[in-house]
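Quick bug: Ion transport domain-containing protein output formatted oddly.
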Amino acid sequence: MLVMQTFRRRIYHALFDHNRRSARRFEALCGLFALLSVVVIFIESGVGTTYHLTYDEWHLFVWVEVFFTLVFTLEYFLRVFSWPQPARYVFSLWGFIDLATILPFYVIMLWPEIGIDYLFAWRAMRVIRVLRILKLLRMMPALNGIWGAIVKSRHQLILFYAFISIVMVVAGALMYGIEGPAHGFTTLSTSVYWAIVTVTTVGYGDITPHTAPGRAVASLLILIGYSVIAIPTGIITSQMSGEIAKRQLARICPDCHQSGHETAAKYCKACGGKLPEE
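Here's what came back:
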C-alpha cells in the first residue's frame, strides 16, 4: 500500500507539479501532441473530402488517430490515477476535455453496429477531436488571472448583459411592429435576432429595414452598439489591473521592505536585494 501511494505521488508530481522540470516537459510534450493531432485533423479533412475516406477503412489517418488516441488515453488514466480524489478530476473541466477527445474514437471503433451514419460520425469526430487544442490551455497559467477577473466582475457583467437583453427585446418588438413579416421580420424571435446582429455591428444583411421608422431604430441600435461594445472589456480590464496592483504591493523586499515591484522582477528596485519568489 505504501509503495502504491509513493508511486501515485511521483506520478502526480510528474504530471501536475509545474515547479518541477519533469512536469513542465511532460505538459509541453502533451501540448505538442495535441497541436500535431489538430494539424493532422485539418489535413485529413481536406484529403478526406477529396478521396471520400471513411473510418471503416484502415488508411494512414486512422493509424495516426489510433496513435494519438492511445497517447491521450494513457495520459487521461495517469491523471485520474494520480489525482488525490480521482472522481473530482473525472468530473472537472479538464477531465471532461480529456475524455471528450478520446471517447468518440472508441465509440465508433468498438460499436460500429449501433447504426451511426458514418458520414455524420466522421464529421462529428473531426469536430470533437479539435477540442484537443484546449489541452494547450494548461500551458497558459496567465489565463487563471483572466478567469479570476471574470469571476470577480460577474455581477457587473450579469447586470450589463441583462440590460442589453432588455434593449434587444424592446428593439425587436419595435421592428416586428414597424416592419412586419412583409420585410422579413416574420416572428418576434427573428426580430430580436436582427437586433442582436445590429447592435454588435455585424450586419449580415439577411434582414434589413425598409421603412423610415425602421431605419431610425436600426441607426439607434448601431450607435448603442458602438457605445456599449467596450463596456465588458473595461470591466474585466479594471479587475485585472487591480489584481496586478495587489500582486505588486504584495511583493516586498525582505531587506529594505520596499513594495510595488513588478510581477516578473527578481531584484529589489531600491536596494538590489533578491526578491522572494511569487
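Actually, after a second look the formatting is fine. The longest helix spans residues 21-51. Closing.
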